[in-house]
Amino acid sequence: MRFSIRDILLVTVIVALATGWALDRWRLARHAAELELRSRQLMVEAELSRAQALLERDVAAVNLERVELLEQAKKFYAEAGAADAAAEADK
Question: What is the reported pTM?
Protein backbone atom coordinates (compact mmCIF):
# COMPACT_ATOMS: atom_id res chain seq x y z
CA MET A 1 0.00 0.00 0.00
CA ARG A 2 1.42 3.30 -1.07
CA PHE A 3 0.55 6.69 0.36
CA SER A 4 0.60 9.77 -1.75
CA ILE A 5 1.83 13.15 -0.60
CA ARG A 6 -1.78 14.28 -0.49
CA ASP A 7 -2.69 11.49 1.98
CA ILE A 8 0.26 12.30 4.23
CA LEU A 9 -0.60 16.02 4.21
CA LEU A 10 -4.23 15.24 5.01
CA VAL A 11 -3.24 13.05 7.97
CA THR A 12 -0.80 15.76 9.13
CA VAL A 13 -3.54 18.42 9.01
CA ILE A 14 -5.98 16.20 10.89
CA VAL A 15 -3.40 15.41 13.60
CA ALA A 16 -2.44 19.09 13.87
CA LEU A 17 -6.08 20.16 14.24
CA ALA A 18 -6.77 17.46 16.82
CA THR A 19 -3.64 18.39 18.77
CA GLY A 20 -4.49 22.11 18.65
CA TRP A 21 -8.04 21.44 19.76
CA ALA A 22 -6.84 19.19 22.63
CA LEU A 23 -4.32 21.80 23.81
CA ASP A 24 -6.96 24.52 23.69
CA ARG A 25 -9.38 22.41 25.72
CA TRP A 26 -6.63 21.58 28.22
CA ARG A 27 -5.75 25.28 28.65
CA LEU A 28 -9.41 26.22 29.07
CA ALA A 29 -9.92 23.49 31.67
CA ARG A 30 -6.83 24.60 33.58
CA HIS A 31 -7.95 28.24 33.47
CA ALA A 32 -11.45 27.26 34.69
CA ALA A 33 -9.91 25.28 37.55
CA GLU A 34 -7.73 28.25 38.53
CA LEU A 35 -10.77 30.54 38.48
CA GLU A 36 -12.75 28.07 40.57
CA LEU A 37 -9.93 27.89 43.11
CA ARG A 38 -9.67 31.67 43.28
CA SER A 39 -13.43 31.93 43.68
CA ARG A 40 -13.36 29.50 46.58
CA GLN A 41 -10.47 31.38 48.17
CA LEU A 42 -12.43 34.63 47.94
CA MET A 43 -15.47 32.97 49.45
CA VAL A 44 -13.39 31.68 52.36
CA GLU A 45 -11.83 35.11 52.86
CA ALA A 46 -15.29 36.71 52.83
CA GLU A 47 -16.54 34.21 55.41
CA LEU A 48 -13.49 34.85 57.58
CA SER A 49 -14.06 38.60 57.35
CA ARG A 50 -17.71 38.15 58.24
CA ALA A 51 -16.82 35.92 61.19
CA GLN A 52 -14.22 38.44 62.35
CA ALA A 53 -16.76 41.27 62.16
CA LEU A 54 -19.29 39.23 64.14
CA LEU A 55 -16.65 38.36 66.72
CA GLU A 56 -15.61 42.00 67.07
CA ARG A 57 -19.25 43.01 67.42
CA ASP A 58 -19.80 40.39 70.11
CA VAL A 59 -16.64 41.41 71.94
CA ALA A 60 -17.75 45.05 71.82
CA ALA A 61 -21.15 44.05 73.21
CA VAL A 62 -19.51 42.05 76.01
CA ASN A 63 -17.19 44.94 76.83
CA LEU A 64 -20.15 47.34 76.92
CA GLU A 65 -21.97 44.94 79.23
CA ARG A 66 -18.91 44.75 81.49
CA VAL A 67 -18.71 48.55 81.67
CA GLU A 68 -22.39 48.75 82.58
CA LEU A 69 -21.95 46.09 85.26
CA LEU A 70 -18.93 47.89 86.68
CA GLU A 71 -20.86 51.16 86.80
CA GLN A 72 -23.75 49.41 88.56
CA ALA A 73 -21.32 47.83 91.04
CA LYS A 74 -19.66 51.19 91.74
CA LYS A 75 -23.06 52.77 92.28
CA PHE A 76 -24.10 49.92 94.58
CA TYR A 77 -20.90 50.15 96.64
CA ALA A 78 -21.19 53.92 96.82
CA GLU A 79 -24.78 53.62 98.08
CA ALA A 80 -23.76 50.88 100.53
CA GLY A 81 -20.87 53.01 101.77
CA ALA A 82 -23.16 55.98 102.21
CA ALA A 83 -25.64 53.81 104.08
CA ASP A 84 -22.83 52.50 106.34
CA ALA A 85 -21.60 56.04 106.94
CA ALA A 86 -25.13 57.17 107.81
CA ALA A 87 -25.52 54.20 110.17
CA GLU A 88 -22.19 55.09 111.85
CA ALA A 89 -23.27 58.72 112.16
CA ASP A 90 -26.55 57.69 113.81
CA LYS A 91 -24.72 55.78 116.57
Answer: 0.53
